[in-house]
Write a structure and sequence with these properties.
Number of helices: 6
Structural class: mainly beta
CATH architecture of the largest domain: Beta Barrel
CATH superfamily of the largest domain: Nucleic acid-binding proteins
Strand content: 35-45%
Strand order of the largest sheet: 2-3-4-6-5
Helix content: 10-25%
Largest sheet: 5 strands, mixed, barrel
Radius of gyration: 33 Å
Keywords: Membrane, Transmembrane, Transmembrane helix
Distance between the termini: 101 Å
Transmembrane segments: 32-52
CATH topology of the largest domain: OB fold (Dihydrolipoamide Acetyltransferase, E2P)
Number of domains: 6
Shape: globular
Number of strands: 29
CATH class of the largest domain: Mainly Beta
Organism: uncultured marine group II/III euryarchaeote KM3_69_D10
Protein name: OB-fold nucleic acid binding domain-containing protein
């Protein structure tokens, strides 16, 4: 017989309570394990869905609405370039245009650069991530399957820029019908324009640029970014060593007008000069002191000159906030870039271009006092570099020392945000002045248009001081390895020798050099620093 003794009632309650307390942690751990495995299952399911989910097919002109998302587009291949920067990168850049439309998407395809690319005119499907940097937008596509060619092709009646770029001599000295997008606006009151024909509606997204000169007047504004077909004559310009397309204004057919550009207050002020002549929109509040008008942003330094229209004056819009549209223009009255909303003032050429009635500097020199006090349009070349914080220099009537007969003093009224390089072409409106203190002619420039900056001068290690000193202040290039000494100073060293030149940068160039592992070309401004204690001087390359 087994005897079981039941505990008293009080002890029994304590005993059950103890059992419950001891069992509770095990129940809690069981719940935690269930929650853990459930969350793990959910994460795995979400990752699996992300892998197998088919990206959305979107329109090409909607790409900017899907930042950092993986999408698909379909269009016709109009252009491509292998290894765009010639650095041996496994990358092919493509331009894909919407079928029957005018929008173009830039695609950066990370794949073996020798990989086969579909023929121009092939309809392709592109999968990639929408990437954006510094105002540029493109599709980042990776792997061989990111670009899929379809059997459909489109026959173009006009020549494509990529065809000219591959073999320009085959199109030289003959009439050419070609399509593309304009880098700048064409103004109806200007008889000469110089700009680029691009394979993308945005300058920063273009892979091919063809320099184009348009003679004659267009009937109405043709906006930057417009899709056009032009008939012109392709020739090699021996003076500037580049191909150019000569076009009459009547031979410009507009397929689609360019879109209005939205300005961002966070952009650097000097970048506005690149948008002169374009239709823009900016948000802000209107301000005025009775004479001058401006648009203010959120920050105290956000301010843009405005030229009000007659409607603005009649409606009394001071203090109103919103989006304000107009055309960016250089105002000679205000000596700055302004938003022109239709106000008629002393703005001779809103597009930043000039007429053809040029005065030569030689004519001024031959009879200076017959021209003093009058304003003319000149064309010339800056003789020496002019820094952004300096407003004086010299301009000559030839691109080089041996090519010019006349050199005059030039003074700029207003700011120029970047360096003006030696031998850089310039076309400007200026008043002829006579400086009694200096006893010479001075050209006071109030508006100007700069040509392309010349390529940097190549420095050779063995040339020495007598050769290098002529390039002080100019953009130069030299090949070498960046190293850092024990004091933290950086140098560009010639491989296999003790020759070196001081390097002025942000301090990271030496570490970057270690990653590259081979000599590279360094481009910067050649300067000279003197050591009064050691009675010596040294050259430096300033790449800042």
């Amino acid at each position: 017989m087994n005897l079981v003794f039941a505990p008293p009632q009080a002890n029994r309650q304590r005993w059950l309570s103890t059992l419950k307390r001891e069992a509770r942690p095990w129940g809690l751990m069981a719940k935690l394990w269930v929650m853990f495995f459930t969350s793990l299952l959910l994460v795995s399911a979400m990752n699996f869905y992300a892998v197998i989910r088919e990206p959305d097919m979107i329109e090409i002109d909607e790409i900017r609405n899907y930042p950092r998302e993986t999408v698909k587009i379909e269009g016709v291949l109009t252009s491509y370039v292998r290894d765009p920067y010639g650095e041996g990168a496994d990358r092919i850049d493509l331009q894909v245009q919407e079928i029957g439309g005018h929008s173009v998407a830039k695609v950066r395809w990370n794949v073996d650069w020798t990989n086969e690319v579909p023929p121009i005119g092939t309809v392709v499907t592109v999968e990639g991530e929408v990437s954006e940097w510094n105002g540029r937008i493109w599709l980042q596509s990776n792997g061989y399957g990111a670009i899929v060619a379809k059997e459909q092709t489109i026959e173009f009646t006009e020549t494509k820029l990529v065809e000219v770029g591959r073999n320009p001599p085959s199109f030289a000295n003959q009439s050419l019908t070609i399509d593309g997008w304009l880098s700048e606006s064409l103004a109806p009151d200007v008889t000469y324009h110089s700009l680029y024909l691009m394979d993308n509606q945005v300058y920063g997204g273009a892979d091919h640029l063809l320099y184009m000169q348009v003679e004659g007047r267009v009937m109405e504004w043709v906006e930057a970014g417009s899709h056009v077909v032009v008939n012109g004559w392709l020739q090699f310009d021996e003076r500037s060593y580049r191909w150019r397309l000569l076009v009459q204004a009547t031979e410009v057919e507009v397929l689609s007008q360019g879109e209005t550009l939205y300005l961002d207050w966070e952009a650097e002020p000097y970048t506005l000069t690149y948008e002169v002549g374009k239709l823009v929109v900016i948000d802000g509040t209107i301000g005025s002191d009775g004479e001058e008008w401006w648009i203010e942003g959120d920050a105290p330094t956000d301010r843009l000159c405005m030229l009000p229209s007659s409607e603005d004056l009649a409606d009394d819009i001071v203090g109103q906030s919103g989006d304000w549209g107009g055309r960016l223009a250089w105002s000679t009255d205000e000596a700055e870039v302004c938003l022109d909303r239709g106000y008629v003032e002393a703005l001779q050429h809103p597009a930043g271009q000039f007429g053809d009635d040029l005065m030569t500097m030689k004519e001024v020199v031959e009879d200076p006092f017959a021209h003093v006090g009058n304003s003319y349009q000149f064309e010339g070349w800056i003789t020496d570099p002019i820094s952004p914080d300096y407003d004086k220099g010299y301009v000559g009537d030839g691109p080089g020392y041996y090519d010019r007969d006349t050199k005059l003093r030039i003074e700029f009224v207003g700011e120029h945000a970047e360096w003006i390089e030696a031998d850089q072409a310039i076309r400007f409106n200026a008043t002829v002045l006579w400086s009694e203190s200096e006893g010479r002619i001075v050209l006071e420039a109030r508006s100007w248009l700069l040509g392309e900056a010349p390529a940097p001068s190549m420095l050779n290690w063995g040339d020495g001081y007598n050769s290098w000193r002529w390039d002080i202040g100019k953009l130069v290039q030299i090949t070498g390895e960046a190293v850092m000494d024990e004091d933290g100073n950086q140098w560009i060293s010639r491989s296999g020798s003790d020759e070196r030149v001081c390097l002025l940068g942000d301090g990271t160039e030496a570490s970057q050099q270690e990653q590259i592992g081979e000599p590279i070309g360094w481009t910067g401004r050649l300067t000279m620093t003197e050591d009064s204690i050691g009675n010596s001087a040294q050259f430096c390359i300033d790449i800042r």
